[in-house]
């Protein structure tokens, strides 16, 4: 077998893979973070029927596509637990509203445990095409039935630009809901932001990607010739 064939395979794979990776990175979008939110410090609730809880979020940037919030629902039964989420601008303009069923957050284990477990609710909406200044998240207890709904909160002043309020009354300045904005963006954009914000992390991702490409190219030099040699040949 010619020694040129493995070298040719290595070069072809080494050149084609980066182009394929770049194409995928520009086309594929993901929502981040994908992990669960941090465990709250305390339970805010129970929410009263038809009550409105509001949390100031500060400014939301382009590509923001949702809000993650830890929730606990206590109460027997299988009925739905309707809670309406609304995203407002600082001037009160409505950007998005959706009624979510929080029944999946119903506590099914040991109900004597006051700490949880928590269930992360993801209120999602189309990615913002322009920043929203002074954004506000409203949570309306629309149809709770017999359920008692508790929202995850913190005393760490996690959102200095926003305040937590209940039924129009602002609460302590250091108390906020444990919300986490979600973003939907292409992998290419996230890598560009990583390069801008954290050169070390970007360098590590680059080295890992190059190592993976070289490894795949090296393995291909062994697989492709064997596959070619194993094919039956026909003589005339």
Primary descriptors:
alpha+beta; six-stranded antiparallel sheet; 236 residues; 34% strand; seven-stranded antiparallel sheet
Can you describe what's shown?
- The protein has 236 residues and is α+β, with helices and mostly antiparallel strands.
- The protein folds into two domains: 4-30 and 188-230; 38-178.
- It has three helices and 13 strands; from the N terminus they run αβββββββββββββαα.
- The strands form two sheets. Strands 1, 2, 4, 7, 9, 12 and 13 form a seven-stranded antiparallel β-sheet that branches. Strands 6-5-8-3-10-11 form a six-stranded antiparallel β-sheet, with no helix packed on it.
- Strand 5 (82-88) and strand 6 form a beta hairpin.
- The mean pLDDT is 80.
SS summary, helix count: 3
Topology, number of strands? 13
End-to-end separation: 22 Å
| Count of discrete domains | 2
Mean pLDDT: 80
Write down the Rg: 26 Å
Summarize it.
The protein is of the alpha+beta class. The protein has helices at 4-27, 187-197, 199-230; strands spanning 29-32, 42-44, 52-60, 64-74, 82-88, 94-101, 119-124, 132-143, 148-154, 164-166, 169-170, 176-177, 180-186. The radius of gyration is 26 Å and the shape is elongated.
Blueprint (SSEs and pairs):
Elements: H1 4-27, E1 29-32, E2 42-44, E3 52-60, E4 64-74, E5 82-88, E6 94-101, E7 119-124, E8 132-143, E9 148-154, E10 164-166, E11 169-170, E12 176-177, E13 180-186, H2 187-197, H3 199-230
Antiparallel strand pairs: 1-13, 2-9, 3-8, 3-10, 4-7, 4-9, 4-13, 5-6, 5-8, 9-12, 10-11
Helix pairs in contact: 1-3, 2-3
